[in-house]
Write a structure and sequence with these properties.
Layout: E1 2-4, E2 7-9, E3 12-13, E4 35-40, E5 46-49, E6 61-62, E7 65-66, E8 70-78, E9 81-90
Parallel strand pairs: 3-9
Antiparallel strand pairs: 1-2, 4-5, 4-8, 6-7, 8-9
Length: 92
């Protein structure tokens, strides 16, 4: 896991409907209220972009459809400045 100001960012989640780790869940809003999370597939296409604060967690879907099991790259910015980047894997 990566850490931003003592916030652990999971590098894997399992959006399979079992109620455990169904979203990519971590908290940024209390320290980075303007943070935006952008997730890209292996071709560099944006598959998720959050509102400020990342209040609605990514559920591993794009346009309501499950994305495939794979690794995805992300960038987290705050006030247009990158604060961290990394990878997250969807497992089902």
């Amino acid at each position: 896991m990566l850490t931003i100001e003592d916030r652990d960012i999971p590098n894997i989640f399992t959006p399979n409907g079992d109620g455990i780790d169904d979203t990519w869940d971590f908290n940024l809003a209390d320290v980075y209220p303007h943070a935006i999370v952008v997730v890209f597939n292996r071709w560099g296409e944006v598959v998720f972009k959050s509102d400020q604060g990342y209040n609605i967690k990514w559920d591993g879907k794009l346009n309501g459809k499950d994305l495939p099991i794979d690794g995805y790259q992300y960038v987290i910015t705050d006030n247009d400045k990158a604060i961290t980047k990394g990878t997250v894997t969807i497992m089902r």
